[in-house]
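Allow me, if you will, to draw on your knowledge of protein folds for a short while. I have a record of one protein: its chain in single-letter code and its fold written as discrete structure tokens. The full record is reproduced below for your convenience:
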Amino acid sequence: MEQPGRTIFADNANVVTNYQVSFTTNSAATITGYTLYLREDGPNSINRSATNFELIANGQVISNVALATLGQDYFVKFGSSDIIKVTDSFAPVTATSFQAIFTSNNSAFNGVRVYELDAQAVPEPSTIRLGLLGGLVLVAFIRRRAVR
């Protein structure tokens, strides 16, 4: 993660800009939502803020969230101009290619500041089977002790 006060996106002063991060996975990943943390430069500042966030999986938009009105800070919608937390849930989506697109505000320093983006993944079937097997072993153990 970048140090506070720094951004991975270059400034494009006073021009609304779409910043994009693309990533792929080696095998298909199934997600059901995400948590996103963003931060402006401080109270009453639209510097480093985003007006919109879009998540795309295999070329299909799976989430599109309005974050702020152009020219306004996060406080108007979220009640805070510090770090904001945005979450979204959706039906399971399986993909190997993802894009995160951030639309900047029209400020002098508009390189959007992203602190963290976490996806909620669906467990693999083998993980679920292992958990069920562990539960069955525990039940058998408890029953066996109760008989004695």
Notes: The mean pLDDT is 82. Helices lie at 75-78, 125-147. The chain has one domain: 18-122. Residues 18-122 form a domain with the Jelly Rolls fold (CATH 2.60.120.260).
